[in-house]
Specification:
With about 280 residues, the protein is mainly α. About 70% of the residues lie in helices and about 5% in strands. Helix 2 (about 45-100) runs antiparallel to helix 3 (about 105-130) and helix 2 packs antiparallel against helix 6 (about 190-240).
């Protein structure tokens, strides 16, 4: 082996190994401190691209899940107001059954119809007042409601529509309980008894709306379950790509630390190799 002074290949190789060990140790430190094995695109460009897309899907799915919760709240408000309307209609029916019993004088009939009128007015008030975030729920002005229940644009896979029929008008006139016809409908016991069919139709109308709300709510619950699964699976996939194994990185750090110390010590010796030439010329 020749003895040369100008180029110390042993020192250069040892220096390169020292640099590699230092870089490896720094990389292990970075991964342990951040918890991620990919901290920049240069670490793994392809997997970072995948992880970023998964992040977008998880974030969008969480917003969609919030959309569903908001829609469920809207349906709950509508159903609650329908329950109150139904209570009033049921009370009107009870009073009508009472009025159909032909033993009451005119004063008693007037008292019955006065409460019935007040109940109808309350139905009208609730129908007008029922709203969610400024949108009227039971006055017939609400159209189809579009819900974004997915993170992406495809309509079929990411959208649910609640039919406007659920939010049809529920005032007394729409239910067939027109207060302007009180005198006619309660003119006598026979008229009151005949009016029961109209009241039963109103009750059926309300129950149908409540059933439709229940069906819509069940569909939203299913969409929520689907989103929850999507979020969990996407998060797990992202974790597999991005999260560092701290135990593995700690072992790597120790390995590179030992290599760095070894290379540092050997570099000192390698730098002394050209001094052998001095002994030849003395």
């Amino acid at each position: 082996m020749p003895i040369i002074v100008n180029t110390n290949m042993s020192a250069l190789k040892t220096q390169r190994n020292l640099t590699d060990a230092t870089n490896g140790m720094n990389k292990a430190l970075e991964r342990m401190s951040t918890g991620y094995k990919i901290n920049s695109a240069k670490d793994d460009a392809a997997n970072m691209y995948i992880a970023t897309n998964l992040d977008v899907q998880v974030s969008g799915s969480k917003v969609a899940k919030s959309n569903i919760s908001t829609a469920s709240n809207m349906l709950s408000i509508a159903e609650g107001d329908l329950d109150v309307i139904l209570d009033n209609v049921t009370r009107i029916r009870d009073l009508t059954v009472q009025a159909a019993n032909g033993i009451y004088d005119q004063q008693s009939m007037d008292a019955l119809t006065d409460e019935i009128t007040k109940r109808m007015e309350e139905i009208d008030r609730i129908s007008e007042a029922s709203n969610f975030n400024g949108k009227k729920l039971l006055d017939g002005s609400m159209g189809d409601v579009r819900l974004q229940v997915g993170a992406n644009a495809d309509e079929a896979a990411n959208c649910v529509k609640i039919d406007a029929a659920i939010f049809s008008a529920k005032d007394s006139a729409s239910l067939g309980l027109d207060s302007t016809q009180i005198t006619t409908n309660y003119a006598n016991a026979t008229a009151a008894a005949a009016y029961l069919d109209t009241i039963d139709a109103a009750i059926d109308n309300i129950n149908t709306a409540k059933a439709n709300i229940g069906a819509a709510g069940n569909r939203l619950d299913a969409a929520t379950d689907s989103l929850t699964t999507t979020i969990e699976n996407s998060t797990a996939a992202r974790s597999t790509i991005m999260d560092a194994d701290i135990a593995e990185e700690a072992a790597n750090f120790t390995q590179y630390q030992i290599l760095q110390q070894t290379a540092s010590s050997l570099l000192v010796q390698a730098n002394q190799l050209p001094s052998i030439a001095l002994s030849l010329i003395q």
